[in-house]
Specification:
Strand order of the largest sheet: 1-10-7-6-5-4-3-2
Bound molecules: (6S)-5,6,7,8-tetrahydrofolate
Structural class: alpha/beta
Oligomer: single chain
Number of helices: 27
Shape: elongated
Number of strands: 22
Strand content: 5-15%
Helix content: 40-55%
Radius of gyration: 30 Å
């Protein structure tokens, strides 16, 4: 069911919308203060969760301490109820039991303090453990299944919410959240999930994730609140909270440490006084409109007493939220809509589409595969299309090898390109960021056994964006009307039955080659463009996309480059938002000679006349022309221009060869400063206009800037 349809067994979310909820402070510091013996730990020194069985009285006292000073919610003593922590003590099989016991203790005490007018709440604490799946220390599915056990215990014990906290690795967080959801489905009882990430003093999470990357990855998992805890005091959290306040569509929360720890006589000491903590949290509530505040390491009942008092005197600020549909790598977030450009999805990391990538993958030369990925990043790609499908190989194994490496090596989000559900799953279980799944269609219908159904289950669970192809039980749609009709069916289905937002759907109106000369494919380019235009009119929030290079299969590389570039330009004009392309091979439209451009347009729009077939004409124009020789012909064209115009044109074209000779000659005619101001800057102005209007992509702008720099020098 869609997240919106979920109903919860608690009124916590309603209360959060009415007023600020105050949580408790530290558990660990309070436990250290209690006089505990090794027997209390059953000999398992440091295993706090054992106390849920041996010393419930101690935990009751701690919870009472917080409820007495006015906390609305307490956290269970279950932070270490996870596989790596309990596994270290050889008691991983007790995960559910210990989670249950810890939650039941907090529930009892919270109920003691609850009145009909004011209920007290129990937050089931779910800590990260000591192993980071993004670094390969452990496996996603293994820890997810252990989190199911912990969540089942918390549900048994009567938790009002699960608080997944102190997260350093987005993949671990995903395992905890999706494990919790699976537990709820199994138990038939649903409670909210809150996700707290830990941002270090460096300004990112431990593995380097920016707060924007975290939000992009976490919000689509269907969590009910997002926030920060641990690592720092409130002072260091302000800017990250501001970001969440302005961009998250769900409530925002914070539980800072009582300042940055300093080393004292008895180990770490937390310097922030209760009044300072109270002032900081009240300030956050007023400025950022937070919904839940509390403390982490070093915060005591006295801190919480003063926080409660300060919050009571504080008016919660109004949040002004702008949401930009995005995907993310482990490190940073990328908007699906790009200003002045399509979202460029690099096509080279594809075992079908690149011989070099395929050979490297088969040879297990993963460094080479990563180099191909990095080349595309440098060429201006915003996302990488990753396809490992190749006949006779186990795609899930290849995907695991590549996705696990790209997870930390790629700063760009990944589009997982496969027709096989297990391959897509292998990708999603290794990537902590938010991916795009490429793709679903109705080739074998939409029944429970269809590929569509199986793939959408994955998309919905992982909160991925999804490419949907205009293919149905009758095959690939060829006319604009049929393409739009299938798109309408896909959009209604994916939003209505799978809870995915329109802005997370990338409709691919599919263009295959128009270069075969076959009568039935002649109209495909124009049909695709018409479908994009109509679709964008009907569904402005939906994204559109294409595998661009398909259009020119069969032509030689130089002709392909021109046809692809002209087709991309036409699709963009029609409103296309993204495309799978070879970024460095897309030529700005103004650099394509008029005749070539005209013939490419005639081919795309099938403008044949008596004695003129644009396909024949394009092939004739590029007969024996390599990509390099077409560069030579551009150089010859440049040489024909008058000197000063040529200098301006060099800037626009990013053409450095022969620059010095042209400048030497120009300096015999006028002073250098005049050349810079009148001619070179005129070129830069054109570059600015082309960039601003989306006709020139960043890599070409950078080339132009390089030539400008060289010329000025
Ligand atoms: N829609 C969606 N996904 C897609 C496609 C699509 N994924 C795959 C493909 N189509 C897009 N990707 C490519 C990648 C490479 C090429 C074309 C499309 C390509 N490669 C050259 C060739 O095969 O001749 C280069 C070969 C080489 O270097 O070895 O053209 O339509 N959703």
């Amino acid at each position: 069911p869609a997240p919106d349809n979920r109903t919860y067994d608690t009124d916590l979310l309603e209360i959060l919308s009415q007023r600020v909820v105050v949580g408790d402070g530290a558990m660990g510091t309070q436990l250290q203060a209690a006089d505990l013996t090794l027997d209390d730990f059953r000999g398992l020194e440091g295993c706090n969760e054992i106390l849920n069985e041996t010393r419930p009285d101690v935990l009751e006292t701690i919870h009472r301490g917080y409820l007495e000073v006015g906390a609305d919610a307490v956290e269970t003593n279950t932070f270490g109820c996870n596989l790596s922590n309990l596994g270290d003590y050889d008691i991983a099989d007790k995960t559910r039991e210990l989670a249950h016991a810890g939650t039941a203790i907090a529930r009892r005490v919270a109920d003691e303090f609850s009145t009909p007018e004011r209920k007290r709440y129990v937050l089931g604490s779910m800590g990260p453990g000591t192993k980071l799946p993004s670094l390969g220390h452990t496996e996603y599915a293994v820890i997810r299944d252990a989190y199911i056990e912990a969540a089942l215990g918390m549900l048994d014990g009567g938790a009002d919410a699960i608080l997944v906290e102190t997260c350093q690795d987005l993949l671990q967080l995903k395992a905890a959240v999706l494990g919790s959801r699976r537990a709820m489905a199994r138990a038939g009882r649903h409670i909210p999930v809150i996700a707290h990430v830990t941002v270090e003093t460096t300004g990112t999470m431990l593995l380097g994730s920016e707060i924007g990357a975290a939000l992009t990855a976490i919000e689509p998992l269907g969590v009910d609140m997002i926030g920060l805890n641990c690592a720092t005091g409130p002072a260091e959290m302000g800017e990250h909270l501001r970001y969440l306040s302005q961009h998250a569509r769900i409530p925002v929360s914070v539980m800072p440490n009582a300042g940055l720890p300093v080393l004292g006589a008895h180990g770490a000491e937390y310097p922030l006084r209760p009044d300072e903590m109270a002032e900081a949290l009240a300030g956050f509530v007023a400025e950022f409109g937070l919904s839940l505040v509390g403390g982490c390491c070093g915060s005591t009942p006295e801190h919480i007493r003063q926080v409660v008092a300060a919050i009571a005197d504080t008016t919660r600020g109004q949040r002004r939220i702008t949401h930009e549909p995005s995907v993310s790598s482990l490190y940073s977030s990328t908007t699906l809509r790009q200003d002045a450009s399509v979202l460029v999805i690099g096509e080279r990391t594809n075992a079908n589409g690149s011989k070099a990538f395929r050979e490297a993958m088969i040879a297990e030369d993963y460094q080479k595969c990563l180099d191909i990925a990095k080349d595309q990043t440098r060429d201006g790609a915003h996302v990488l299309d990753l396809c490992v499908d190749y006949v006779g190989r186990d795609g899930a194994i290849d995907m695991t090898a590549l996705a696990s490496r790209l997870a930390t090596a790629s700063t760009l989000p990944i589009m997982l390109d496969s027709t096989e559900t297990p391959v897509l799953r292998a990708g999603l279980e290794h990537l902590g960021g938010r991916c795009i799944v490429n793709s679903v269609n109705y080739e074998d219908g939409d029944g429970p056994d269809s590929r569509f159904h199986k793939t959408m289950e994955l998309v919905a669970e992982h909160g991925a964006a999804v490419v949907a192809l205009t293919i149905d039980e009758q095959g690939q749609a060829r006319t604009p009307e049929h393409k739009v009709a299938i798109a309408e069916r896909l959009i209604a289905d994916i939003t209505g039955n799978w809870g995915v937002e329109e802005s997370s759907i990338l409709i691919d109106t599919l263009a295959f080659t128009i270069a075969t000369g076959q009568e039935e494919s002649r109209g495909d380019g124009a049909a695709t463009i018409a479908a994009i235009r109509e679709l964008k009119k009907r569904h402005p929030d939906v994204q559109t996309t294409l595998g661009l290079s398909n259009i020119s299969f069969g032509l030689n590389p130089a002709a392909r480059q021109v046809l692809n570039s002209v087709f991309l330009h036409e699709c963009r004009e029609a409103g296309m938002d993204s495309a799978i392309v070879h970024a460095s091979k897309i030529v700005p439209i103004n650099r394509i000679p008029d005749e070539q451009r005209q013939v490419a347009l005639d081919l795309i729009y099938d403008r044949r006349r008596d004695g003129y077939d644009p396909l024949q004409e394009l092939m004739r124009l590029f007969e024996g022309v390599s990509a390099a020789s077409s560069k030579e012909s551009r150089a010859a064209e440049l040489a024909k221009l008058p000197l000063l115009e040529r200098l301006a044109r060099r800037i626009v074209d990013g053409e450095r060869n022969g620059l010095e000779a042209d400048l030497d000659e120009a300096m015999t005619q006028k002073p250098p400063l005049a050349i810079i101001n009148e001619d070179l800057l005129a070129g830069m102005k054109t570059v600015g206009e082309l960039f601003g209007s989306g006709q020139m992509q960043l890599p070409f702008v950078l080339q132009s800037a390089e030539v400008m720099k060289a010329a000025v020098a």
